[in-house]
Amino acid sequence: MAGPEVEPRPPRPADAGRDNVVTAVGDSPTFAARHPRPTSKGIHMRAAIFTEQNGPLSVEDVTPTDPGPGDVVVRITASGLCRSDLSVIDGTLPMPPPAILGHEGTGVVEFVGAEVNRLEVGDRVIGSFIPACGVCWFCHNDQSNLCENTYTVMMNPRATRSDGTLLPTMTGLGTFAEQMTCAEMSLVKVETDLPDEMLALIGCGVTTGVGAALFTAKVTPGSSAVVIGCGGVGQAVIQGARIAGASRIIAVDPVALKRDTALKLGATDAIDPTVGDVAAQVLALTGGRGGDFVFEVLGSPDLITQAFNCTRAGGTTIAVGVPRSDAMVSIPSFPLILQEKRLLGCVYGSAQVRRDFPLLIGLIETGRLDVGDMVTRKLDLDEINDGFRAMTDGEVIRSVICAH
Ligand SMILES: NC(=O)c1ccc[n+]([C@@H]2O[C@H](COP(=O)([O-])OP(=O)(O)OC[C@H]3O[C@@H](n4cnc5c(N)ncnc54)[C@H](O)[C@@H]3O)[C@@H](O)[C@H]2O)c1
Ligand SMILES: [Zn+2]
Ligand SMILES: [Zn+2]
Questions:
Q1: Whole-prediction pTM value?
Q2: Is residue 3 part of a domain?
Q3: What residues sit around ligand 3, an ion, with C-beta below 5 angstroms?
Q4: How far is it, in rounded angstroms, from Cα 16 to Cα 172?
């Protein structure tokens, strides 16, 4: 029922002189202090559990399973709410309940298994929602965002409910909790003094969005970019296009807060799609040609078609939003072929997390990437369902759960 038992970890040289050396999670004085309620393992944590499709998440005390030798236990300090979490709740992304959701988070390492060699207790880490194992074909070919272990890290149950039900975690992370146990390959160590809520967003929205512009599309200086859907990920696309030197950046979103934020973060024009024809307005702003780079960042098949229709001959459409797995996307054949329009998929912004998390931190630290203005609201874990309501109602760019 429980996960693999942990062998006591032999002392490692780097542990010498530390007073927080642990050989198992339950031995950690910090954990004992933080989780005083007695259980079979002496550890409890609170987590937001996905229990039924379209139902609210249930915040409960659960018991973490024992970490394996290649696992790391992280005390979570901040976790963003991404639409992909909502897509699991509403069935757009297939993941059966029960499970611990959350895939955009940061924290501090509290325990490392015996075979972990890149991380130490006390390290600051960001969860990578696609692992970067470093040894598979894709990792060796600069495509760690397609790592062959993407699905294997999701298989391990990482906690047990009070009724004994085992809980897997979203993308092998499960950041809507006080702590997470995950594979070492799902974590990237970072060295920075940036606040937790900013680092959390690097775990998904910022890397996906900025990466979509810089690494997937390779936006060029002086070009035009159109961003359809300006939520957390879309605002990061806008900033990526600005960083890449696009001269015209057109934000499309029905919500005034999103358009206003987009204009603040780098968009030069904003279109309300509920007023007038979007493609006609984009053409009018781009010399009648259409955008050089057009991003869909909601996850609607119809809007991917719209993005394609807003793209100039020879231009590139980038599909970032994730529709249902059984959805088909309709693309007109002549523009695809005779106008050489290109359509690119984008996962995790084509980012190489071990290279690019530090790169993004550098852009934030030097003021080129504004993540502070993307954090609209900070929440307690108990308020998570209201956070998803606020996302649905268009009240926020990003809500971030922050630990006390
Ligand atoms: N490809 C990846 O690796 C990856 C990573 C993260 C998220 N995603 C996906 O990206 C998408 C966006 O995620 P998010 O967290 O930014 O969501 P979000 O809810 O914050 O943003 C979506 C935005 O789309 C806007 N919108 C709604 N209807 C629109 C319309 N007709 N035209 C233009 N805009 C419209 C909403 O107002 C909102 O601002 C989701 O599908 C998510 O699953 C993909
Ligand atoms: Zn996400
Ligand atoms: Zn790999």
A1: 0.91
A2: no
A3: 133, 136, 139, 147
A4: 31
